[in-house]
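Bug #77: duplicate submission created two jobs. Keeping one. Sequence:
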Amino acid sequence: MAEKVQISIDGRTVDLPTLVASEGANVVDVRGLIAEGIYTYDPGFLSTASCDSEITYIDGGAGILMYRGYPIEQLAKQSNHLEVCHLLLNGELPSPAEYDALVKSIADNQDVDEQYQQLFNGFSQGAHPMAMVGAAVSGLAALHHEDTDITVHEDRVKTAHRLIAKIPTIAAMAFRHGAGKSFIAPDPSLGYAENFLNMCFGDERDISPTIAKAMDRIFILHADHEQNASTSTVRMAGSTDCNPYAAISAGISALWGPAHGGANEAVLDMLNEIGDESKVEEYVAKAKDKDDPFKLMGFGHRVYKNFDPRAKVMEESCHEVLEELGAEDEPLLKLAKRLETIAREDDYFIERNLYPNIDFYSGITLQAVGIPTNLFTVIFTLGRMPGWISHWHEMLSAPYKIARPRQLYLGSNARDYVAIDQR
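Kept job's structure:
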């Protein structure tokens, strides 16, 4: 049974109800405080539940991540990305008929017309692919504005399928434009991850099942992560009733930040800075020195305090890819493996729970596959799409309010205007 929390305000006692969570900590409902003329103060919303959701649950202390109640380890090893997309969007794993219908819907929606493709010509070849992807997703609003009614369930599902289908095509087009190469059309006969890789590299090499499986697993592991910065951005933008493609584009912009989606890119930048396996110990010492600005990227996690459950699954795929490609002896990857060994054996890392996280293994995997570093966050975008659109769909499926955070004002008190010639 929910308990009440009491607070005192100028001698008055105010009762605040608690809301019971199905998993994890209960939540104090502070909405009644506004009537008392007071707000709560929580920079970064670190202790604030901005919504209720049935999609994803995280217990950082225990290393738990579940989509709709299913442990991420089971989904990553036994499922595939499109099945996970259906789970996130609809709440249950699909039946065979539902899965076949989703596969067909994705195949039917993955192409983009030639006029839309001209959008990429507006970008220089050196433009960051995240800029291209954000603009391209936002541009879908111009194609699908009049035929999208966000109040209609069927329209929201159609929008979700359209975004999940087109984001691999858009991502591959951004990559090909940046490489100065012509676009490769999607192939509906290929699986989701295999099709994306084929649109990137199909004119150079065949896509092996091992690499396609590793990419599909990366998509699954990144599919959702509760109320992170980009997901909260999608919800906040969506609460204005804006076009869904605009809301998702806002999420893409938030993900672009190096403190969020750019973390696996930062791992490769760090490895390149170290440069050689012989310098690993030197840089580990720098990382231990609190007065040295150097930081090891890809170790530990803000949410997961003991281990990242996604990293354990990604580690397996990472080593499978390295073994198949014969890339284990490449200097940069040897350096990474040496760093991984130290992190698992050195007391400094063990005592501080600085374990290799998903960004460490996904960054190494993408590097081995041939994905350029500036495309890493685009891969994250591709994987996170079903999570974003599922949270948007969930929010619009129930009564909601436009997001409007409060502030602690610390500016000047009221004062009178002084004419410019008297200042």
